[in-house]
Write a structure and sequence with these properties.
0% strand; mainly alpha; 139 residues; single chain
């Protein structure tokens, strides 16, 4: 009588594990492909906005990329998932800037990569802080 309850819990855990091991990486790859697609299009005219709007968009876009990478490696140790998330976003930012160098109407800028890396670093720091706090029983 107890066996069905135990196996039900195991099945739920297995489903969550499958989701974590398959779906997060797929979301990460899909978002990476979206960034690639957006950076493949030439910019015709700069849109209205405010100064440094481009850098803010880079910051936020790569913060999301790092958050998805963090979730993809969340089963790892905290330090490993933190380095993976930041490294993935920073290296993808370099490859994106290199790719944009060859796209007509686009340019590669170190300042864009710095915004990418800073956005990734901020979200990784926030997620690592939250995870440490949770491990200490404070969340």
């Amino acid at each position: 009588m107890l066996y069905p309850l135990l196996t039900a819990k195991i099945n739920v855990t297995m489903n969550l594990t499958i989701w974590a091991r398959i779906c997060w990486p797929l979301l990460l790859l899909g978002y990476s492909a979206l960034i690639y697609s957006l950076s493949s299009a030439p910019i015709l005219l700069p849109g209205p906005g405010f100064p440094l709007k481009d850098k803010l968009l880079h910051f936020l876009g790569y913060a999301l990329l790092a958050a998805l990478a963090w979730q993809s490696g969340r089963s790892w140790q905290l330090r490993a998932s933190s380095w993976y998330a930041w490294g993935y976003a920073a290296l993808y930012g370099i490859s994106d800037e290199w790719h944009q160098y060859y796209v007509p109407g686009r340019s590669a800028e170190v300042a864009d990569w710095l915004a990418d890396s800073l956005g990734a670093a901020c979200v990784v720091a926030l997620l690592a802080w939250r995870e440490r706090k949770k491990q200490q029983g404070g969340a």
